[in-house]
Amino acid sequence: MTRKYVNQLRPEENINEVYLVTSRQLRPNRNGALYLQMRLSDRTGSLDARMWNVDESILNRFDVGDYVRVEGNTQLFQGAIQLIVSRLQRVSPTEVEAADFSLVNTLEIDRTMNQIAERLRGITNPFLRALADAFLLDEQFMAKLAESPAAVSFHHAYPGGLAIHVANMLALASTVATLYPTVDGDLLMAGVFLHDIGKTEEFSGGQELAYTDAGQLIGHVTIGLEMLAEAVAKVEKLLGEPFPEELLLRLKHMLVSHHGEYEFGSVRLPMTLEAMALHCIDYLDSRMAACVERIQGDPPVDNPWTAFFPALNRKFYRGTQAGS
Predict the structure, then answer these.
(1) Which CA distances in Å does 250 have to 25, 246, 267?
(2) Distance of CA 100 to the CA centre of its chain
(3) What is the pLDDT of residue 208?
(4) pLDDT digits 0-9 by tens, 209-221
(5) Count of alpha carbons within 13 angstroms of residue 321, beta-carbon side
(6) How many angstroms separate the CA atoms of 13 and 23, rounded?
(7) What is the pLDDT of residue 8?
(8) At 163, is the pLDDT very low, low, confident or very high (cuts 50, 70, 90)?
């Protein structure tokens, strides 16, 4: 039977299909009755879904990261398609084609990981090159990098998303270093590679986009600093001399300041050229990815605008050909 992908959905359709649950929440309506709000997705996009008149026991039937077969009807709500679910049943992962739900395939991830390694091999500073190698040669770390998301919901929020985010940023960093020769290109490339390493421990692996206990309690910046300290100790042992103190300080500063602003969770404001460049590159790739994912992932309707995107407090204009 032909699958009904999210990007094929139209208003006023009867739906009986399997989707991946990427978020779920019980909410009360105006009368205090509970309803289930979910985000359902496949490899083509995602949409909001609601199930009316439920109780808390519904949460025992499935979890975020599960596949569910839903029956219901689509409708247009505030310019976007949503699904009103009448029946819902968890489906075993063995009963689905994983490729139908993955935004990236194994070949693309392999290519991305090779791109990351190739960029880092261009580092000439012996300490930074040895530091990069300490991670590149760590098979367990690289496996986690290849399957980790970059976020739970905002950007690159899918297995492998972190690697794609890092690869994009390394490509941008190469251009920035060329345009601004006063920037230390080696340090910028190393900082880009390492700025989000803590996310390999912050998020659980697989399709479930959720925080680990360490992710909830201390976050990826603190985790990343701990991972950096362990790698530096390996480098010092390998090279037989201390890691340069100022170089390490500048690298740590890049990790703690890459969010750019205190209101974005930055521990410090960027105070070096490389830290400022890192923040700008991170901001550019994360925002562009979020915009592209929203524009391409919304089910098409006869409306040139996407649904409202709360994370960026706006809609996006797709153009007059939207929905054609």
Answers:
(1) 42, 6, 14
(2) 18
(3) 60
(4) 678 899 999 999 9
(5) 1
(6) 23
(7) 87
(8) very high
- Give the type of residue at 17: E
Instruction: List the structure tokens of 278.
Output: 């890192």
Residue with the larger pLDDT of the pair 66 and 273: 273
CB proximity list for 28: less than 8 A, separation 6 or greater? 34, 35
Residue 170 φ/ψ, nearest 5 degrees: -65, -40
Better pLDDT: 306 or 71: 71
CA–CA separation, 187 vs 81, rounded Å? 46
> Tell me: the pLDDT tens digits for 33-85?
999 999 898 888 788 899 999 999 999 999 888 899 999 999 988 777 899 99
Question: Which residue in 89, 73, 86, 90 sits closest to 15, CA to CA?
Answer: 73
Domains, in order of start, for the chain: 6-98 (2.40.50.140), 102-293 (1.10.3210)
Given the DSSP bridges, would you call strands 34-42 and 14-28 parallel, antiparallel or unpaired?
antiparallel
3-state secondary structure the chain: CCCCCHHHCCCCCEEEEEEEEEEEEEEECCCCCEEEEEEEEECCEEEEEEECCCCHHHHHCCCCCCEEEEEEEEEEECCEEEEEEEEEEEECHHHCCHHHCCCCCHHHHHHHHHHHHHHHCCCCCHHHHHHHHHHHCCHHHHHHHHHCCCCCCCCCCCCCHHHHHHHHHHHHHHHHHHHCCCCCHHHHHHHHHHCCCCHHHHECCCCCCCECHHHHHCHHHHHHHHHHHHHHHHHHHHHCCCCCHHHHHHHHHHHHHCCCCHHHCCCCCCCCHHHHHHHHHHHHHHHHHHHHHHHHHCCCCCCCECCCEHHHCECCECCCCCCC
Cα–Cα dist 81/40, whole Å: 12
User: Exposed, middle or buried: residue 285 (CB in 10 Å: 0-12, 13-18, 19+)?
Assistant: buried
Provide the greatest CA pair distance for the chain. Answer: 70
Spatial separation of the C-alpha atoms in residues 273 and 188, rounded to whole Å:
9
At 97, list the tokens. 């084609």
Q: What pTM did the predictor assign?
A: 0.79
The pair of structure tokens assigned to 303 is 């409306």
